[in-house]
What we know:
With 282 residues, the chain is α/β, with parallel strands linked by helices. The chain folds into three domains: 4-125, Alpha-Beta Complex (Conserved hypothetical protein from pyrococcus furiosus pfu- 392566-001, ParB domain), CATH 3.90.1530; 169-227, no CATH class; 232-281, no CATH class. Helices cover 55% and strands 15% of the residues.
Amino acid sequence: MIDNKLKKGLGRGLSSLLGDNTKIAKSNKILIKDIVRNKFQPRKNFDKDNLEELTNSIKEQGVIQPIVVRPSKSDDGKYEIIAGERRWLASQNAGLHEVPVVILDVDDVKSLEFAIVENVQRQDLNPIEEAQGYQKLIDDFNYNQDKLSKFIGKSRSYIANSLRLLSLPQEVLLMIEKGDLTAGHGRSLIGLNNASEIGKKIVKQRLSVRQAESLTKQFRDKKFKLVHKKDPNILDLQRALEEKTGLNVSITNKKNNSGNISFEYKDLEQLDKIIQTIKNNY
Length: 282
């Protein structure tokens, strides 16, 4: 049984993931060299200024909140970080040799869940790291978007939009990771063949998300028109019918040579002429 004081110290996000049957051991401090990075840690980038501020704080006050770890499966005598990697890095920078920890006995799924919850609640992950964390839960631990939504406490549309970012080109993903583009900018670029070039333009011109959406809409409209550009033979047939009937004619021919043909009439007399022509020939 985990005592309430310890659960409170872990924070609401982490304690909510702990079951009453979770094995836990208290340890005052362990050596920093005996701690290894969490292989499931979704966070790859740490803000240098924030890390420096935390380092200075630790130099003055020490590590106030313990680092949550579990025994390493690959390194005997080592402990893998579940939550608190930034504190671990800052403690090293501060010249500490040992840090306070809480040792949990949890599996890989819980370890990843802990890492994601801590980072999402603290808004420490950039949009790409967050999406990659969700994707890992889906790929490796049989999560779906509905289960993710309930677990993270975000709407299903939020999860879906987050995952959609991963379809962007690597160059655009890096722009978002570095903070040059926001997730909103990224979503406006999804599905465009020239997403990288437009992304650079958005960064260079410092466009807002709304401005970026207006810009990308131009390319989407252009792409739509290009996709539906008609075959010259169809256009010739269309013009011939227009000259013969005196009406505007539109012919759409699909790849399998099925399609439709439409005549635009301006009054009932023209409509009657079309109907009689069809009746007389069929």
